[in-house]
Amino acid sequence: MANLEYKICKTCRENKHHSEYYIYKGIYVFPNCKACTSKKDKENHKKEVEKKGGSEFVHSTPGVFACPIQKQNTFKILKSLGYQLNEEKNIWWKPGVKEIVDGKPVFLKLRKGPGKDKLKLIKKILQLYKSGMTGKKIATKVNLSATTVYKIIRENEESHKDSGSSNS
Predict the structure, then answer these.
(1) Which 3 state secondary structure label does DSSP give 46?
(2) What's the whole-number mean pLDDT along residues 142-147?
C-alpha cells in the first residue's frame, strides 16, 4: 500500500511530503517539488530576460542596472547616439548637447527657430484674425486651444508694434 502523503519529484527524484509541492485548487499536486519548480522558473526568467535584451525594470538611480545585459545594451545605445562616459563622475555627456560643468551635467540651451509649418500656421491665424474672425472660431478652425491662438495674436501684435514704432 502506497503512502498518499508522499510523492516522488519528477525532476530531483526525491520522495517528498505533499507540503513540499504546489497544489492546484486543493486537488492537483504538481509533478515537481517547490524547490525544483522555483529553480526552473528562475532559469526560465533568466532566459526570457536575455531574449528580451535585458530587464524591463529600470532603476531610478543613474548607473544602477537590473542585470548585466541591461547595462551592456544601455552603454551600446548611448555610445551609438554619440554620448561619452565620464568614468570618474559616472556621467554620460554629449559634446554640444550636455557638458560637464563643475562636476555636474548641464544641458546646453539649444535655440531653434519655428519650423516652416509653424510659421505658416501663425500667418494663417493672423490673417483670419485681421479678417474679423474671433479667437475661439480660429482655434476651432486650426485645431488649437483658444489660449494658444490669443497668445500667438498677442505676441505678434506686440512684435508688430515694436517694429512699427522703430520705423517712425
Answers:
(1) helix
(2) 90
